[in-house]
Amino acid sequence: PAPQADGLVIVKPVYFLAVFLDALTYSFLPKFMQEAAGASGISLAFASVPFTAYYLGFAASLIPAGVLCDRYGAKPMMLLGLTLAGSSVLALAFPLGIWELTALRTVSGIGQGILIIGVQSFILAVATPEKKTQGAAIIVFGFQAGLISGMALGSLMVNFLGSQGVFFISGGVGFAALLFSQLLIAKTERKAATSSLS
Is the pTM of this model over 0.85? Predict the structure, then answer.
């Protein structure tokens, strides 16, 4: 029971930070993509393509991520998702064309999709039957809190740091969450996963 309770507590900030790092960019990302499309010499209508690519990547990653979670466990999927999400947002800080940005948003969507499946698998592995509702609440709360606070802070920071500064901070948040997960989640997840299979 103690490791299970600890596992639910530990996973809360991980999912919050993962949503938060992406949401930091939401307030100015449409304008950023329009400027990138214009700089690439194509119609501004193509600025919507990176957003479509993000959600396609997210949706396409869910089923394969579930299969990989069953095979390798939740922790490696969480680490992979955080790595993809954090690095793809950090890379937006560099001067790239609209098609490279579209590829990065696809990777970001894949990373977020892998991560949510990893978090769900982790919660299912560590939560006792009476804690399943609390586990579901972690995902709902983490998403809503990360989205709202990320958009609010991102819209403020972009005025002082510019889009490049926000992208760097977002990437830093992602790698902080990655380090946190690597150090604190592994042993709890392994024990829980082993006991759940027995």
Answer: no
